[in-house]
Amino acid sequence: MTKKEQKYIIAIDGGVATGKSTIAKAVAKELNFVYINTGDMYRAVTLYFVQNNIEITDENIVSNINDIKITFRLENNNVITILNGEDVTEKLHSANISKLVPLVAKVKIVREKMVELQREFAKNNSIVMDGRDIASVVFPNATLKIFLTASLDERARRRKLDLEKRGEYIDIDILKNDILKRDKIDMEREESPLIKVEDAVVIDTTGHNISDDVNTITELLKRRTEI
Question: pTM for the full model?
Answer without folding.
Answer: 0.87
